[in-house]
Amino acid sequence: MISDLDAQKTAKALILTLDGEEVAFEPGETIYEVAERHRREIPTLCYDERLEAFGACRLCIVEVEGIRNPVASCTTKAAEGMIVKTKTDTIEKHRKTLLELVASENRSVDVNQLSGYASQELKILVDRYDARTGRFAGKKSGTSNTKDKNPFILRDYDNCISCYRCVRVCAEREGDYAINVMNRGFNTQIITEFNNDLRDSECTFCGQCVQTCPTGALGDRKALRDSDTEGEIRKTRTICPYCGVGCSVDMLSKGDKIVGVQPAMDGPANEGALCIKGQFAFDFIQNADRLKKPMIRREDGELHECEWEEALDFAAAGFAKVRDKFGRHSVYGIASGRAPHEAAYTMQKYIRATYGTNYIDNCSRA
Amino acid sequence: MPRQSNDELITRWKDEPAPLLPLLHAFHNRDGWISEESIRAVSKGLKIPLAELFGTVTFYHHFSREKPGKSAPRVCTGNVCCLHGGNELLESLKSEGATAMPCAGRCDDMIPVIIDDKAFVGLTKETLVHRATPMPVPNPGGVTECVFSKIREEGRATLEGYRSSGGYRGLEKALAATPQDVIDAVSESKLAGRGGAGFPTGVKWKAVADAPGDPKCIVCNADEGEPGCFKDRTLMDHDPFAVIEGMTLAAFATGAPLGFIYLRYEYPETEAILENAIKDARANGLLGENILGSGLTFDLYVRRGAGAYICGEEGSLLNSLEGKHPFPRNKPPFPVTHGFNDKPTAVNNVETLASVPHIIANGAAWYRDLGLGENAGTKVISLSGDVQRPGNYEIPIGLPLQTLLNDWAGGPLPGRSFQAVTMAGLSGGFLGGENLNITLDDPCIKSKGSFLGAGGIMVFDDSRNMVDAAHDAMEFYAHESCGKCFPCRIGTQRMTERLNGSTPKLTKEEWLAEMNDIGSTMKSTSACGLGMAAPHVTESLMRYFPEQIEAHLNGEA
């Protein structure tokens, strides 16, 4: 009797030949995944590893012996004995032509880095393939949606290359299905239902479309406010403080100024996802009106700054007074949804032990 | 009939197989256009996200999203209709809200104009008539035919007439044998996909029969979107039961209980003919449960497309049936294992399916021997353009092109000579010069860099400007490119611009280099057949007509 484990051990490893080198792969892996693992720099524009492979940009084509045309490595499963070449002269020529074609449909390949996480992908590839040749000149594709005045997402479709990463991330990752593609061929255009503004759609302004856009056609309007601010962009990895999920983010700053937020693609809790608050609601950090010290309303009816010690004593006295006068059920605790488990636990302990009531809740339950 | 409410329409369709297209048509028919309110109702009724549904509706050329909508004339401006004055007819009908439509598959007749659910034909606004699809003329070569062998018999389009002219003999014979026997016979006949791809039908059916997963499905591809092809229309209009019997044989062979005919929008009368035929077959125990008392179950539904050439590509077709955005699917997996609803599916062309009853009734060897020389079987050629007698001709595969053009179809128009023909509708590009002396079989045609495909041949005589012809062809591809893969989406647009001179001035060397580079990349890297085939037009233009390109670049008419 051979157990499954034994069978696995004795099963022959799957092998393919990658640019002359024999490499092992797991069942179900695509050629692209195998090649990436072996540090082949295969260019892509429609690929986002978090999304189902789509096969639109065709830049990831590779030659497979026995197949007449090159295949898109992102959508082709690796198979035992395959002989794959990732970088022949013919393949590189096609890639350059494709990039020249893409460059020809856009108003510009150079966009501000603050546009979004992936916004430099097209520019980097066009430069790597020396594809700023001006060949294939003709009509530009896409129409910038300037009437959409939402404060978060710039919809500059003059720079759209119809890779549909935004549409796919919205459906596959966020589950909003807020945007899709209208028309066909060269007239395709990313739209919401009935081509309205984002705020009239199912969009939750999570910003994931912005961050996966490889051309800056979708841009982070809040970050772009600081396009002209002096200084290099610095990225600081931190955790979003808004709720207990713990999304990893990179705070973008120029000098001492926080200018934007990008989700960490390798954040274990979020894998590149954020919500509207984590993505766009960071202005409070450096807002002049932000409270920096506790305040007490004194007998003159005005708020006065004080030290934490005094503030806590003042609050404790107030709670004690209410309890003594109205009884233990006069206090009702609501823990913040942004509090992690430990803090929420402490909160209920505080309410139960201090007041002797079970009136404890969490705002996430509402 | 009183106007049906949104809810009534949704209730009518939502539990039917493949409900989106018929439901959208129901709204389109009711109102004459598809309003925002209708899209919202369908989105809710079928639980399709609103933005996705809106995007999908906009994909289809023939769904009107504004008034006058469906009743406004749609005038064919396909390649052949352009030769006959399609653009002028369109202009004269503009006051009635007319718009252009790509080749509507009636190139053997006058220019088709679709108004509501009627396809009229005519050369001027005043002389439009509504009449039946032309019947193929008796075989001019006197050779034995397969799919056309009975089509001209009186009453063949009725169930009674079909049965009295030998119809359902094949199915009766098959039901007395085994599914494997049917697959063997189809394999031995060497029947191959007549929609253009030429994949061996027996191999496809065997793969579906062997694939795990239920329910399996038979899809008849009646999208016939290839310009210059109008054979499937003739077969369905004049011999609808042959298609139904062919599908039933496919169902028996593969074990599929479910079938669809995916019919192009431009054939409204055909839809009624097929629906009636299916109703009659069902009423007479030839569809549904326990067919002919054999225990076989197979039911069949017509689904009407809405104007998208790409929906003739099987992945797009299946997505369209499933109510998804009709982009082609990545292959593998292929439909034989992952087709309709990801179940094993045989997608076969109308002509392929209509051949099968004859093959089963008369035997594999009979069909195989109909071809000339090494070639097996027959092919319907849709011949159109500058030739005396355009029409559908069923030829033995291997027939010389000149025999078809001169002996069968009467040669060029008076005082003219043949300059070029297209192959595979448009997808094979042009043939000209010496290469007009080919035989009509793939080994020969492929050696000239083209292919027979779905069998559409458009003829251009010496009065025609071939750059204009190539432009009209490429404009069609640009109009029909789905917009998914980059080389096709951008390439067809750039080639069109270079053929109509709308680009900045290019030197001849630059023009040729750009066209060659785009063409080569499209052929090698496009995700489906549309983008791979489109460059045949420009490649063959450069091969056969360099002097006309030179004149084009010099700004000469």
Structure notes:
The complex is a heterodimer of chains A (366) and B (557). Chain A has three domains: 13-87, Roll (Ubiquitin-like (UB roll)); 99-286, Alpha-Beta Plaits, CATH 3.30.70.20; 295-365, no CATH class. Helices cover 27% and strands 17% of the residues of chain A. Chain A has ten helices and 16 strands. In chain A, 39% of the residues are buried. Chain B has five domains: 6-59, no CATH class; 72-130, Glutaredoxin (3-Layer(aba) Sandwich), CATH 3.40.30; 159-368, Rossmann fold (3-Layer(aba) Sandwich), CATH 3.40.50; 378-461, Roll (Ubiquitin-like (UB roll)); 466-553, de novo design (two linked rop proteins) (Up-down Bundle). Chain B has 24 helices and 15 strands. In chain B, the strands form three sheets. In chain B, strands 2-1-3-4-5 form a five-stranded mixed β-sheet, covered by helices on one side. The model of chain B has no long low-confidence stretch (mean pLDDT 97). Chains A and B meet through α3 and β7 of A and α4, α19, α20 and α21 of B.
The CATH homologous superfamily of the largest domain in chain B corresponds to NADH-ubiquinone oxidoreductase 51kDa subunit
Shape of chain A: elongated
Instruction: Briefly note the CATH topology name of the largest domain in chain A.
Output: Alpha-Beta Plaits
Strand order of the largest sheet of chain B: 2-1-3-4-5
Given the helix and strand composition of chain A, which structural class is it? alpha+beta
CATH class of the largest domain in chain A: Alpha Beta
Count of the separate structural domains of chain B = 5
The assigned structural class of chain B equals alpha/beta
- What's the rounded overall pLDDT mean of chain A? 94
CATH architecture assignment of the largest domain in chain B = 3-Layer(aba) Sandwich
Largest interface: A-B, 51 and 48 residues
Chart the SSEs and their pairings.
The complex is a heterodimer of chains A (366) and B (557).
Chain A: H1 4-10, E1 14-18, E2 21-25, H2 31-37, E3 61-64, E4 71-72, E5 83-85, H3 89-105, H4 121-128, E6 153-155, H5 165-174, E7 180-182, E8 189-191, H6 208-212, E9 218-220, H7 221-224, E10 233-239, E11 248-254, E12 257-263, H8 276-280, E13 295-297, E14 303-305, H9 308-326, E15 333-335, H10 341-355, E16 360-362
Chain B: H1 6-13, H2 20-31, H3 36-46, H4 50-59, E1 74-76, H5 79-83, H6 86-92, E2 99-101, E3 111-115, E4 118-122, E5 129-130, H7 159-164, H8 169-175, H9 179-189, H10 201-210, E6 217-222, H11 231-238, H12 240-254, E7 258-263, H13 268-283, E8 288-291, E9 296-304, H14 314-321, E10 345-349, H15 350-362, H16 364-368, E11 378-385, E12 391-396, H17 401-408, E13 418-422, E14 430-432, H18 442-447, E15 456-461, H19 466-480, H20 486-499, H21 508-525, H22 529-533, H23 535-544, H24 546-553
Parallel strand pairs in B: 1-2, 6-7, 6-10, 7-9, 11-15
Antiparallel strand pairs in B: 1-3, 3-4, 4-5, 8-9, 11-12, 13-14, 13-15
Helix pairs in contact in B: 1-2, 1-3, 2-3, 3-4, 8-12, 8-15, 9-10, 9-12, 11-12, 12-15, 19-20, 20-21, 21-23
